[in-house]
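Quick log. Single chain, no ligands specified.
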Amino acid sequence: GGGGGGGGGGGGGGGRDALAVRLSHLEKMRRLYWTHSRVCDPDGMHFMAAVYCMLRSSPVTTDAGASGLHVALPESAMELCRSKLAVSCEVFASPWNTYFGRFCSERVDLDAPFGSMGSFFSFFPKSGSFTAHPPSSTSLLVRSSQHILSLLETAEEEGNALSFLGVGPDWKTPEPWGMTLLVRSPFLQEGGDVSVSASDCVG
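-> predicted structure:
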């Protein structure tokens, strides 16, 4: 799943284990935890432990097993996805960079308290609109594109409305095969490229 630099590691003296996190990120984690975990933890007693485990865990890697660059889209661009394309979920994100608060990520054991639905490759939605913004790993782009196309084929056969907004790196030479699969797909809407101007992305 998606990466995101939410907090930094640090060590305390005297055998104490301390981690640093921005207050704004901590408040975002608190909102997500309350939304998704208040039934099993109504008093929030385990909130800080959940945040600690997520921070202390090993660095994020992709489902393909290789680290990849994963920069979140600006909030203004995500709001355009919501308002113009009815997107309500990200299939590659993390608690740190999720915009919609419902997302897929690789580390479901650590991210589930904050809204993760698990790995995208174990996710089989029947309908809805989603953003697909995988880390910039060639193998992951191919695998995610194949999964998206399989889901779209099933939705078409069953008469369901399903769509994905694919976001990928601007690699022109050569174009990654994963992007080629989507661009050449019969499911690509005519005029399907959505341009977001620089002014739209100014936060």
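Helices lie at 23-37, 47-56, 75-85, 108-111, 138-158, 177-183.
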